[in-house]
Design goal:
Layout (H helix, E strand, L loop, with lengths): L1 H31 L4 H36 L2 H38 L5 H35 L2 H9 L1
Length: about 160
């Protein structure tokens, strides 16, 4: 039973993370470009206030579920799951060190207006966002391969039998 739960978590949390970042990259980001700057900055600030805790928890659960899968896997699957966890850590670090500081600047802009180089700063935010989205998506794809590969190779069934 635990093995099924571990595999499910290793797919659910990374899938939600990649989906949330992907939605932002495909829809929200382009919608931001279509509205006046004051609307963008106000909405961006509100969105980040709501997203902050949710996405941090989701990144943590993604890292943890991939690590648990790595510990419970063998050979190549272990290394692949560990690599997926590292990709999720990279996504977290890009967020904390890249996007979050710019989010703090945008919060100020929503009140006092943007600096003259705001367009370059927004492009940098977008680059960080695409980077973290790519890392989250890559982690999800790797974990799909690990889970599907372990089931098709019969490893998952053997683990299930051993845990009963």
């Amino acid at each position: 039973m635990l093995s099924k739960l571990v595999r499910a978590a290793a797919l659910l949390f990374p899938g939600l993370l990649a989906g949330a970042f992907g939605y932002g990259a495909v829809n929200v980001l382009y919608a931001f470009r279509e509205v006046p700057l004051d609307v963008r900055f106000t909405f961006h600030t509100a969105l980040m206030r709501v997203n902050g805790p949710v996405m941090q928890i989701l990144m943590g659960l993604t890292i943890l579920s991939a690590l648990i899968l790595a510990v419970r896997s063998t050979s190549r699957s272990r290394w692949s799951a560990a690599a997926a966890s590292a990709l999720a850590v990279t996504s977290f670090l890009v967020t904390r060190l890249g996007n979050v500081p710019i989010n703090q600047e945008i919060k100020v802009w929503a009140v006092s207006g943007p600096p003259s180089d705001y367009a370059a700063i927004l492009r940098r935010w977008e680059l960080f966002h695409f980077t973290r989205t790519g890392c989250a998506l890559a982690a999800f794809v790797v974990l799909i391969a690990v889970v599907v590969g372990s089931r098709t190779a019969g490893h998952g069934a053997a683990v299930d039998r051993a845990e009963r």
